[in-house]
Amino acid sequence: MIEDEVVLEARGLRREYGSVIAVRGLDLAMAAGEFLTIFGPNGAGKSSLLSMLGGAMRPSAGTVRVRGQPLSFSDHDWQHRIGMMSHRGFLYGRLTAEENLRFYGSLFGLKDLDERVPARLARVGLESRARFEVRQLSHGMRQRLSLARALLHDPDLVLLDEPYTGLDPSAASVLRSVLGELRDGRRTVVMVTHNLREGLAMATRLAVQVAGEFAWEGLNAGVDRDAFERLYHDVVEGRA
Amino acid sequence: MSTAGTRRAAIALTLAGLLGLVALYWMVFFWVPTEVNQGVVQRIFYVHVPAAWTSFLAIGFAALASGMYLWLRDERLDRAAMCAIEGGLVFATLVLTTGPLWGKIAWGTYWTWEPRLTLTLLLWFIFLGYFMVRNATEDPEKGKRFAAVVAIVGALDIPFIHLSVIWFRSLHPEPVVARPDGPTLPGDMLITLLFGVLVFTTLFFGLFLFRYAVEGLRSESDLRARSAA
Amino acid sequence: MTTYWKQVWVIIWKDLVLEIRSRERIASMAAFAVLAGVLFNFSIDTTTTRTQDVAAGLIWMTLVFGGLIGVGRTFQLEAEDGAFQGVLMSPAPKDAIFLAKTAANFVLLYAMSLLVLGVFAVFFGLEVGSNFPWVALVLGVGALGFVALGTLFAAVSTGTNMGETLLPVLLFPLLVPMVIYGVGTTTRLIAGRPFDEVEANVRMLGAFALAAVAAGAVLFRYVVED
């Protein structure tokens, strides 16, 4: 890990919902250019973790820092550094693809929207659908738009919550290509997915989250897919 | 303040309050002179009015505690607010039951839209809203925050409600104009009233501290149960 | 500072565009305004009551109940799109989001209240005459206070498992000053009294509205966090 470029630093992250503990005392540090894929069964607290890393959810305990800046609720700078793509989409159904991007672009204070929005739409292959309302787009197209939205402001830290779920092959290949670009551009990515193949293909680091903590963590140095699958099941079932 | 300390203070205050209450009742029934217009029933006034003032104290206290809770996120502040609101609800209910009783006997009507009674009625609903919101969320922390907002906005609205109802009354004067609590209240009555306010305030805080201590114990046992899980 | 107001403006724009395209709240609020007028016609005995005497009260009650419909849906609609979290994760300050939502709701409610005035003119022959600008002002100020409190508590009630049904319980006690000052001044204005007579109370209504907006702007962030 390159020490001087710590992009994300989370310590002692904990999240409770009443008596349910979704995330328990999790630490995570990531440098520029690292790509972490988190695998894990449902209910392991992966979405809660991602929400806390993205500043969307206040932790019950612990801190998150992005480029040294803590995610406090009263500041409005750190939001520029984080981009999140959730399976919920964050898109307004009755706005067009273009309008959705322009809307978020304005919220992020971007000035060059006239150039940026068409360019980003083209990057995800949606330039022909710019004037279509989102509710008229297929799921795959919405996911692509969602990705464009997450990356619109060129964040340092990109968080992806189950981005491959329900994607058709062309959308998946767009996603794969964009993620590849992020990694090559030394952006930091944390991805939660059930898709073993895609998750292993992209990642520099891997983790398996079970019951609110990382039951297993490691580097992705040419890990064999079948071997990892076995490892995953062992970890989840408590044998490793 | 430790739980033991809180309990001791609670006992002390409540005992003082109860003793004061006995003294108050003695004053109300045997000492203070009967009011000329309404007769004996007017004596409810010495319970009714202090209870009303105590419920206003409750919302003010709860709003302050709530504001600090939102700022500092100390559970104890939220607990204090909740206990105050609970006490306020009790005293407000007292006002809303003694009021109509008094009204019916003294003036023949159960309800008048006089400022104090109206304000207490609305306050009662604000207290109710506090608990409804607090208990209606999946995440208890959310409920506490929502309830804090209810308490704060409620308290801020009180002056507006008070002024507007007074204006309303000036436009629609009721046939009965009862001002037994005006500045012209004679000495003995004033003393009894002020003593009543003191007693009720003491009682309120005594009961508040008991409730606060119990709630503290409950949250502690919850915490233990959770860490054991 | 200009980024702030740009953010506010773009959220207002977004809400109004969505409203125009779906017409959901516009339609139900407009229908409510007209239908309420119809029901009022059957509920008042015009042989014993002069409409002029009760009009102000009925207008304001229509405003309250119709406004409840509109405001209650504010965050429900956001939840349906699931996009609100994206807005919350943006750099837009929470008070900016609140002001924007309140402003958009205000546009809807104020339009409805003018429609109600029109409905009363048509159905009941209500004549406001030369005091119309003042009545329009009072309705506006009252509507502002309403939407500020309504937007704040709509966020609260949407976050509970009781949903919008909780909104009137929370809101109505707080609206008493608005109703009293609103109806009181409107009655006088409709009766032809000069504005000077009611000016002090319109100021109170204004103070109420400003306090509501300020309180909402400060407290909104605590409601929507998480």
What labels would you give this structure?
heterotrimer; B: 229 residues; mainly alpha; 6 helices; C: 226 residues; 9 helices
SSE inventory with pairings:
The complex is a heterotrimer of chains A (240), B (229) and C (226).
Chain A: E1 6-17, E2 20-31, E3 35-39, H1 46-53, E4 61-66, E5 69-70, E6 82-85, H2 97-107, H3 113-123, H4 139-151, E7 157-161, H5 169-184, E8 188-192, H6 196-202, E9 205-210, E10 213-219, H7 225-236
Chain B: H1 3-31, H2 45-72, H3 75-107, H4 115-134, H5 140-171, H6 187-228
Chain C: H1 2-22, H2 24-43, H3 51-72, H4 74-81, H5 84-88, H6 94-124, H7 132-158, H8 166-190, H9 195-224
Characterization of this structure:
The complex is a heterotrimer of chains A (about 240), B (about 230) and C (about 230). Chain A is of the alpha/beta class and about 240 residues long. Chain A has helices at about 45-55, 95-105, 115-125, 140-150, 170-185, 195-200, 225-235, and strands at about 5-15, 20-30, 35-40, 60-65, 70, 80-85, 155-160, 190, 205-210, 215-220. The relative contact order of chain A is 0.18. Chain B has one domain. Chain B has 6 helices and no strands. Chain B has helices at about 5-30, 45-70, 75-105, 115-135, 140-170, 185-229. In chain B, α2 (about 45-70) packs parallel to α4 (about 115-135). The model of chain B has no long low-confidence stretch (mean pLDDT about 85). Chain C has about 230 residues and is mainly α. Chains in contact: A-B, A-C, B-C. At the B-C interface, α4 and α5 of B face α7, α8 and α9 of C.
Structural class of chain A: alpha/beta
Total count of helical runs of at least 4 residues of chain B: 6
Give the DSSP E fraction of chain B (strand runs of 2 or more residues).
under 5%
- Which shape of chain B, going by the Cα principal axes? globular
Structural class of chain B: mainly alpha
- Secondary structure: helix percent of chain A: 25-40%
- Write down the domain tally of chain B: 1
